[in-house]
Amino acid sequence: MRLEQVAYRLRGSLGDAIPAIPARGSQPARDILITIWRDDLETPYRSTEPSLPLPRDAPSGFSSEMVNGEQWRIYTLREPPKVIQVAQRSSVRHELVQQAAVNTLWPILVLVPLVCAAVMLVVRFSFLQLNRLGSEVQAIDAAHLQALPTRGVPIELLPFIDSINRMIERLARSIETERKFISDAAHELRTPLTALQLQADNLQRDIVPSNQERFQELRRGIARSGGMIAQMLRLARADASLQTDAVTLVDVSDVVVDAVAEVLPIAMKRNIDIGAEEMTSAKVRMVEADLGIALRNLVSNAIRYTPDGGKVDLRTEVRDNMVWIEVVDSGPGIAEDLLPRVFDRFFRANAEIEGSGLGLSIVKAIVAKYGGTASLRNRGDGKSGIVASIGFRLAA
Ligand SMILES: Nc1ncnc2c1ncn2[C@@H]1O[C@H](COP(=O)(O)OP(=O)(O)OP(=O)(O)O)[C@@H](O)[C@H]1O
Ligand SMILES: [Mg+2]
Hints:
The chain is an alpha+beta fold. The protein has helices at residues 2-9, 90-138, 158-203, 212-239, 252-269, 288-305, 359-369; strands at residues 33-38, 46-47, 61-67, 70-79, 82-89, 248-251, 273-276, 283-286, 311-319, 322-329, 373-378, 386-393. It has 3 domains: 2-95, Beta-Lactamase (2-Layer Sandwich), CATH 3.30.450; 155-239, Signal transduction histidine kinase, dimerisation/phosphotransfer (DHp) domain (Helix Hairpins), CATH 1.10.287.130; 244-393, 2-Layer Sandwich (Heat Shock Protein 90), CATH 3.30.565.10. Helices cover 45% and strands 19% of the residues.
C-alpha cells in the first residue's frame, strides 16, 4: 500500500527532485526503489538505484518481478508521458508484515494471561466468600440463629444475603414466640398446682384410713404434674438465647461437688455409692446455673435408673481443649436401638420408673447454647450401665 502512495506523490515535480546520477550502491537494501521513465528516453529518466533496472513493461498496478535474481514487489503507475515505478524487495516486505504482526500480537499475548489471571483471582475470591458464607449457614440452628455477615461480601450477593437474614429474623421470632408460650403456660400452671398441693396436704388428716392409699396416689399424681411443669420451665429457659451478662468463669469441680451433695440423701437412702473421683479443676465460661441444671439432670438419671445398692461415679477430664464431665452408673443401661432417641423431647425408654422425658432435652439445649457436646452410651467395660458425658470448651 505504501508503494502505491509513493507512486502517486511522485506524479508532479517531486520526481524531478531525485538526483539524476545518485551515488551508486548507496541505497540500503531495505529502502524502496524508485524509477521514473519518460516516453522520449530509452534509459530511466530518474532512478534511486540505476544498477537495478525495473522492467519498464511491468503491468500497471501491483506486480511481482524478478530483478537481478531477487523477487521484487513493484507498483507501476502509467501517467503519460511518464511511467513511475516504486518497488521493494519482497523479502523486506515479508519481514515488515511479520514485524507488524508481532507488534500487534505481543500486547495481546501479554494481556490475555494477565486478564485470565485477574479473572481467576476475582472468581476464586468470590467463591472463597461463598464458602465462608456456606459454613456460616451450616452453623445455623435453633440455638444459633444469628444473621449472616455482610462485610466483605461481593455486592452482587448482598440482596441474597439480605433475604436470608430476613428469613433468619422471622424464624427467630417465631421460635421465640413458641418458647415464650411454653414458658408462660408452665409458669401459669405452677400457681394453681401449688394451691392444689397445699389443699391436698390440708385434707390429709380428714381422709379416712380406708381411702388413704387412693389419696396418696392422688398426691403422687399432683407431684408428678409439678415435676413435669418444672422440667418444661427449665427447657424453655434452656432454649432461650444466652444472657451474656450472666456468664462467669465457673470451676467445673465446684459444680460437680454441689450436684453430688444434693443427691447424697436420696443415694444413701437407696444404698447407692455415689462419688466423684478423678477430678480436674478446670474452668469454663458459662452461666453457672446452666451447668448445674445440665449436670443435675445426668446425676438424677444415674440415681433414678440405677437399682438400690448400685454405684454412680462422676469424673472430670480436660482433653482437646474441652472439659468433659462423665457420669457413670451401674444400672441396666439402654437398648442400643433406643439410644439415638434419648435426647428427644418426652422420649422415655423405661415406663416403670417415673419421669417426664425432658431431662436430656434440657441437657441438649444447654450444651447447644455453649457449642458443647452431650452423649449417652452403654459402658464398654463388660458391666451394665450408662456413661453420660457433657463437654464444654475450656476457658482460655
Ligand atoms: N442413666 C440411665 N440409665 C438408664 N436409662 C436412662 C438413663 N438416663 C436416661 N435414661 C433413659 O432415657 C430416657 C430419657 O431421659 P430423660 O432424662 O430425658 O427423661 P426422664 O428421666 O424420663 O425424665 P426427667 O429427667 O425429665 O424427669 C429416660 O426415660 C430413661 O428411659
Ligand atoms: Mg431424666
